[in-house]
Write a structure and sequence with these properties.
Chain lengths: 364, 350
């Protein structure tokens, strides 16, 4: 007797489009996905536990390894949490430099998101276009601190002062960016096949996004205007004039276009910061040995992949008593089982790409 | 001789006839052997040079240099890659259907050789000038579906099976517009013979008479060769490598060779049927032919490195709802055109 059976496919942990070691147990009816079960944790390194045996300063490089495409944003989140705990006042110039580097890092991260998103749809060329521009940003970082990926740049109480040649190079980069974004629109946004693959695909409704607590561009793609830089400004973000772009339908295309618009807004922020940056010291007077008083603190920042927040409990020693991290990816990835069923196998890859996951932050 | 070097095959045949004292049978046998050797050499040459060309063009489109280390400007890179693949272990998966799995790559390359036999490379340079040339070509190239499905089924792997399923669905769907797009030309020339179709284009190329046919052919041919934006059989972002997931070493390389041989074939057919084949001023015919083939190849490379991949249902919709009606409309238009032409010039009938 002939019978039909669901085909169960194991996408990951080793698969070209799972962006690391994410695993999806996918059930297929022909090419149509009937259910997706997501498995995380293949990259668990015990980041939170490690903090308990490191001093506050020693832990900064570990935060680089959370979301390795946005290491400066991670550093900033952690460093600002500790500063909040200690009540440190950061010098003006350092605040502006943090904005500049943080937004540069956001640009670099969104470039990867857009490029690999296109790669997952089979378009290889746009990927190299975005990486060409990311290269320029990484060169700026290298010029400043020597590193390119995990730079460990912000410190508790300040940030490193970039060299003289940084400023002309930054201006040159900012001048080239509008042309590059025009190219992205030409090769990705306006492409008929790209639109056919993304418009209306993988709709995350605003209700679902709120229930699961999706954050970052994925939330804004669903049409909810929520950006911590605007809604709960940290650092000196309240001094800058920028828009929070939102999508309309919450589909893959909206999540893509929100990222591109955010890149434009980031460029605006950097322009303002370069214009207003004052002279002065870049480090506050912070004791060599960081020893916050007993207490606890919660701080959250807007990372390229959603809200990153740190919760630190201090027992008055040089090491945190407990440190808890909330990463954007871990929460965002949870929408997949709700959104993916009913779409084709290739769409699930498109949806996953549009969520822009990064596993080290998810598994910690 | 009007054009120097245009009748390469004819000259060789004359030479052999002279050597063997005019016995036609011996000359024919020798010519057949030479022809098949030349076709094999051509496939190897086409694949090696097209792979290099693809990597160079891709590099140029992607703001990078492409291979540039081995030999002058990296020209020997594909040779080195082929040598590397020869040295790789030939793995048969434990669960695979040994015969089906092992034979599939050979069928791919065998079919390519069979198709290449009927292509007119230059004036008098058709290895086998069948009177049903186009018909034979389409029939044999339609068989290419089978080795892909054999690979998908024989591997006994879920990704490969999905790839094989896609191969069948895609290649059969696009076979029909491909055939219909060439029918317009056959209606005008009233022949299936490849050399006759080229001869019919001595005044005007069929791309001017059949622009719609050319467009439909180019799109359907991209799908037939499984190249982006229709590379769903491989579909590396969802199916890792689709039907070829389990293949290693030389067996995998044969698929690769087959892909580029097919790319050469569809470009050669386009050059023959729509771009006037070896017709052209000043240069020998086979150089004109090579130029036209390279132009078509470049077009296909351009597609590949610009477009993302279509989804499986979009592919089907496009094939059945857009390309097929267009190709049928092309046949209708051609028929009406021929009817009007015959009304004006009643002398030309048939």
């Amino acid at each position: 007797m002939i019978k039909t059976q669901e085909l169960e496919i194991n996408l990951g942990p080793q698969h070209p489009s799972t962006h690391g070691v994410f695993r999806m147990i996918t059930k297929l009816d022909g090419e149509t996905v009937t259910s997706v079960e997501s498995k995380v944790g293949y990259l668990h390194r015990g980041m939170e536990k490690l903090a308990e045996s490191r001093t506050y300063t020693q832990y900064i490089p570990y935060t680089d390894r959370l979301d390795y495409l946005a290491s400066i944003n991670n550093n900033l989140g952690y460093v600002q949490t500790v500063e909040k705990l200690m009540g440190v006042e950061v010098p003006e110039r350092a605040e502006y430099l943090r904005i500049i580097f943080g937004e540069l890092q956001r640009l670099a991260s969104h470039m990867v998101a857009i490029g690999t998103g296109s790669l997952d749809l089979g378009g290889f060329t746009p990927f190299l276009y975005t990486f060409r521009d990311r290269e320029k940003i990484l060169d700026l970082f290298e010029m400043t601190i020597g590193g390119r990926m995990t730079m460990n740049m912000p410190r508790i109480g300040g940030i490193i002062e970039p060299p003289e040649e940084f400023w002309p190079a930054l201006n040159k980069f900012l001048g080239e960016m509008p042309g590059s974004i025009e190219e992205y629109h030409g090769i990705i946004t306006g492409n008929e096949i790209f639109q056919a693959r993304t418009v209306g695909v993988g709709i995350i409704s605003p209700e679902l996004a709120e229930q699961i607590a999706v954050t970052g561009p994925n939330l804004r793609g669903s049409g909810i205007k929520w950006d911590l830089r605007k809604n709960a400004p940290y650092g000196i973000y309240d001094r800058f004039d920028f828009e929070v772009p939102v999508g309309v339908n919450g589909d893959c295309f909206d999540r893509y276009i929100v990222r591109v618009r955010e890149m434009e807004e980031s460029i605006k922020i950097i322009h303002q910061a370069v214009r207003d940056i004052p002279e002065g010291p870049t480090f506050a007077k912070v004791p060599k040995l960081i020893k916050p008083s007993v207490g606890e603190v919660y701080h959250r920042v807007e990372n390229p992949r959603g809200e990153l927040s740190f919760y630190i409990v201090s027992d008055g020693s040089t090491k945190p008593y407990r440190l808890r991290i909330r990463g954007g990816t871990f929460v965002n990835i949870q929408v997949l089982p709700y959104v993916a069923p009913g779409w084709k196998l290739a769409d699930v890859i498109a949806i996953l790409a549009s969520l822009d996951i990064i596993l080290p932050e998810c598994d910690r | 001789m009007p054009q120097y070097g245009s009748g390469l095959f004819v000259s060789i045949a004359h030479l052999i006839r002279g050597l063997f004292g005019g016995t036609t049978v011996t000359a024919d046998v020798v010519m057949t052997v030479i022809n098949s050797l030349i076709i094999w050499a051509l496939i190897a040459l086409a694949a090696l040079s097209l792979i290099l060309l693809e990597r160079k063009v891709a590099g140029w489109m992607q703001l990078r240099t492409g291979p540039n280390r081995l030999g002058p400007r990296g020209w020997f890179q594909t040779v080195a890659d082929a040598m590397k693949l020869l040295g790789k272990e030939d793995i048969f998966p434990a669960a695979a259907d040994k015969w089906v799995f092992g034979l599939a790559p050979m069928f791919v390359i065998g079919l390519s050789v069979m198709v290449m036999a009927v292509i007119p490379y230059g004036k008098g340079m058709v290895p086998v000038d069948l009177n049903v040339g186009i018909f034979y070509l389409l029939a044999v190239s339609a068989l290419t579906t089978i080795p892909f499905f054999m690979a998908g089924w024989g591997s006994n792997n879920k990704f490969a099976l999905l790839g094989g399923m896609r191969a069948v669905a895609q290649m059969i769907s696009y076979e029909i517009p491909l055939v219909f797009s060439l029918l317009g030309v056959v209606m005008i020339t009233q022949t299936f013979k490849m050399s006759a179709i080229v001869n019919a284009q001595s005044h005007v190329w069929f791309i001017l008479l059949q622009p719609l046919g050319f467009v439909v052919y180019t799109i359907a041919a991209t799908a037939e060769t499984n190249r982006a934006p229709f590379d769903l059989v491989e579909g590396e972002s969802e199916l890792t490598a689709g039907a070829f997931t389990e293949y290693t070493g030389m067996r995998w390389a044969l698929f690769f060779l087959g892909e580029y041989a097919n790319l050469f074939i569809v470009s050669a057919v386009a050059a023959t049927v729509f771009l006037g084949g070896w017709q052209g001023p000043f240069l020998p015919g086979w150089i004109w032919f090579a130029i036209k083939v390279l132009f078509m190849v470049f077009l296909f490379l351009w597609f590949r490195w610009t477009f993302p991949r279509l989804r499986v249902d979009q592919l089907m919709h496009f094939g059945w709802k857009v390309l097929l009606p267009l190709s049928v409309a092309n046949i209708l238009l051609t028929g009406v055109g021929i009817y009007i032409y015959q009304l004006i010039y009643p002398a030309i009938g048939g």
